[in-house]
């Protein structure tokens, strides 16, 4: 590795460069000159200390920086190796989401566009399954420069996330308690859903019954159920909660509130043979907005955050590394379905 040590010593003469930058730039330079190839082992921390005279923490930080870009990997405490030769990559990002629902697709597409091609984004889905979530964290741990994670809201997951350095983690979508040095851009469900339902009180009162479809053993936010129950009790609304819509059970003069789009599509399908007019014979209210809900049947009223805005702010955090702690309340988007 004499050629690498010589390059580092050459870069020492460039005063504006920090020691960290000298190490990173030297390794990148030798990758680009093809003197370092994929699979090559880098000098050990002790060897680097002896040859270039930098502190151990400076060398470790440089290697970890290169790991974050996907250029270097560490193998079972045996050392650091060249993992990739694509030096144009700025950072490798692990994006962990619930599932590829339409609104999360909007988040991903905007996130991808905002970061640009120099960032590598690998997407993982845990489907609100704790075992899958644990497996994902095990597989991605230490392999990425940044982790953007939509967590399962349990104390165990909070403990797992604390193992990721705070400067490398951004929690999105669902809020979870973490120390103050961790960043998040998450939703608030209970109070904001309740406030939006109050705005809809005149429309809700047009219908004989208000029906929420909510599965207790799913990834549905419990805050929505709490808001619904508080609202119907306070305003004496005839209402009920069902786990899911049963095909063919549609009834006139009912207002249906959906969290799962699959239930919404089934109700819309059942309304056609009965010639029910959406917004008159039956009412429809859905959680999480998307382009389809904006246009079908004259538009479906939704209670939702702006997922594209959340994605843009998340991308800005990745690029700027400025701490962010933001809870985004849901907003009402009223259309013709009520």
TrEMBL record:
It comes from Algibacter agarivorans. The keyword Zinc does not apply. This is GntR family transcriptional regulator. The keyword DNA-binding applies. Residues 17-85 form the HTH gntR-type domain. Pfam families: GntR (PF00392). Keywords: DNA-binding, Transcription, Transcription regulation. InterPro entries: Peripla_BP_I, Tscrpt_reg_HTH_GntR, WH-like_DNA-bd_sf, WH_DNA-bd_sf. SMART domains: HTH_GNTR.
């Amino acid at each position: 590795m004499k050629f690498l040590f010589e390059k580092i010593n050459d870069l020492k003469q460039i005063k504006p460069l920090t020691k960290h930058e000298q190490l990173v730039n030297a390794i990148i330079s030798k990758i680009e000159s093809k003197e370092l190839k994929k699979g090559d082992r880098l000098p050990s921390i002790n060897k680097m200390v002896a040859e270039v005279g930098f502190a151990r923490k400076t060398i470790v930080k440089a290697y970890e920086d290169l790991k974050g870009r996907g250029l270097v990997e560490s193998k079972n405490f045996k050392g650091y190796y060249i993992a990739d030769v694509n030096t144009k990559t700025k950072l490798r990002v692990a994006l962990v989401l619930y599932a590829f629902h339409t609104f999360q697709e909007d988040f991903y597409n905007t996130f991808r566009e905002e970061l640009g091609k120099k960032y590598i984004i690998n997407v993982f889905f845990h489907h609100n399954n704790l075992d899958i979530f644990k497996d994902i964290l095990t597989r991605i741990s230490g392999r990425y420069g940044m982790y953007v994670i939509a967590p399962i809201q349990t104390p165990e997951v909070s403990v797992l996330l604390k193992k990721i350095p705070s400067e490398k983690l951004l929690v999105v979508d669902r809020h979870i308690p973490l120390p103050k040095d961790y960043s998040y851009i998450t939703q608030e469900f209970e109070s904001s859903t309740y406030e939006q339902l109050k705005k809809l009180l005149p429309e809700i009162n047009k219908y004989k019954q208000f029906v929420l479809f909510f599965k207790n053993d799913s990834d549905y936010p419990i805050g929505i159920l709490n808001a619904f129950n508080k609202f119907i009790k306070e305003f004496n609304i005839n209402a009920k909660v069902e786990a899911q819509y049963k095909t063919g059970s549609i009834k006139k003069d009912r207002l249906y509130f959906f969290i799962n789009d699959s239930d919404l599509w089934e109700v819309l399908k059942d309304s056609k043979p009965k010639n029910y007019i959406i917004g008159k014979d039956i009412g429809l209210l859905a959680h999480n907005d998307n382009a389809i809900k904006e246009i079908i049947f004259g538009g479906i009223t939704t209670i939702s955050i702006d997922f594209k805005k959340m994605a843009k702010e998340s991308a800005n955090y990745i690029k700027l590394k400025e701490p962010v702690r933001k809870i985004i309340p849901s907003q009402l988007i009223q259309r013709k379905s009520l």
